[in-house]
């Protein structure tokens, strides 16, 4: 009975706050219970949406499903072929439940690139967009390099070249581009230090699944440049659009779904097929992806572990979260940085703290409860979530 009450109390915490999927910087630059209690995935701040540097377009992207639909209508009013392609790529990257563009949108982008080839075959835009429309197709690397020769420090060039290097598993090139991206402030100190805590949260796992630019490349920076937890396999949902990237994962022993559209169903299938491996999912992944697999997700630091054999009362979950919060995590975004980005990132530490509070309530651990309430108050104030915490 105590376990059931605990699960109900814990999962009564509604969605913390819903964030749209990231505006892909390549363009612009749940806890689990095996009881019958309702399970609600608690959303965290998506790292990809914080203080993003606009790369191609200075316009802000759409931020919800309705706005994505409106953006499709706005495409009709755009005059130049390049601008049309940019807007369509932004629409594709802002989808809440898919990294892949749907077939009609992909066809339209390909048509824009074909038209650019006629209008301006030797232009920077044609070379760059030809590569981008291929969704990290390394067979198009020649055109990417031609564009790079024209504008070697262009933010889109840097991000696309980095993606191309990671897809090819070219760590030497990836190292060089990661340093350039950091030098050009496309990755903030806040996101990089957040990535360190993200990796530490994943240290008991074989793979860390990320969503888009900032979490994927923040982690890559820590692994390749800083040498932090290089043993953890980084799996980017965004880069999974590449056949070469998928083949690399298959060669590394991962079983891949038969479909090639990277969406919520793909993630569910991938996790199920690789249940024998220890998978960690970044809390930056949008909730649409997490809802179908929420009964197998357990909060550990800044990730959800995918484990079919766990229950929410697993003692090791409490021990691991205590160790992370009290000892292992740097938490610089909570205690050191003063920026709006750090304020938002601090919210991602709340799920583990609320999980611990629920455990302490269940087990009547008064001293620990007093301590964790203070910690929750500190993080809630930093992240602007005081009113939410009071309600729950």
Main traits of this protein?
53% helix, disordered N terminus, 392 residues, single chain, 5-stranded mixed beta sheet
Distance between the termini: 21 Å
**What are the segments in which pLDDT stays under 50 over at least 5 consecutive residues?**
1-21, 23-63, 71-78
Q: Count the helices. How many?
A: 19
- Helix/strand/pairing class, anyone? mainly alpha
The number of distinct β-strands equals 5
Beta-strand content estimate: 5-15%
Strand order of the largest sheet: 2-1-3-5-4
Structural commentary:
By secondary structure, the chain is mainly α. Helices cover 53% and strands 5% of the residues. The protein contains 19 helices and 5 strands. Strands 2-1-3-5-4 form a 5-stranded mixed sheet. A hairpin with a 2-residue loop joins strand 4 (297-300) and strand 5. The longest helix is centred in the last third of the chain and has 18 residues, at 366-383. Residues 1-21, 23-63 and 71-78 have low confidence and may be disordered.
